[in-house]
Amino acid sequence: MLICKQKIFSVSLAALMLVTSCNNTKQSDKFPNKEEKPINIILMIGDGMGVSQISTMFYFNPEDSEFKRFEHIGFIKTSSASNKVTDSAAAGTALATGHKTYNRGIGVTPDSVSLTSIMKLLQNKGYQTGLISLSSITDATPASFYANVTDRNMQEEIARQLVESNIDFFAGGGLKFFNQRFDGLNLTSLLKQKGYLLDSLVLPASIKSEEKFAGLMANDGLLPKHEGRGQFLKEATELALNRLSGSQNGFFLMIEGSYIDWAGHAKNSEFLIAEMLDFEETLKVAIDYVDNNKNTLLIVTGDHETGGVSIEKTNNSDSVVVTFKTDQHTADLIPVFAKGFGEEQFRGFYENTDVFNKISILTGINKNIGR
Ligand code: MG
Ligand code: ZN
Question: What does each C-alpha distance from 209 to 197, 242, 243 come to in angstroms?
Answer without folding.
Answer: 12, 9, 6
